[in-house]
Write a structure and sequence with these properties.
The chain is α+β, with helices and mostly antiparallel strands. It has a domain of 39 residues. It has three helices and three strands, in the order ββαβαα. The chain is globular, with a radius of gyration of 11 Å. The mean pLDDT is 89.
Length: 60
Amino acid sequence: MTEWYFVWIDGPRGPEPQKWSAEGLWGQLGRQDVIVRFALNDVEAELPLDQLARLHPIPR
């Protein structure tokens, strides 16, 4: 099964949520705009971004 991550990046209008798969993560590891990355369990991986943003808010 594919591993998924919920990621907050520093976008042009402020923090933006994204969902990345482990396969695509390798190309993203060097990015300087990543604020925080959360590993998702199987249930969380099925949730839409708005629900993930509520479960995993940006750290203050």
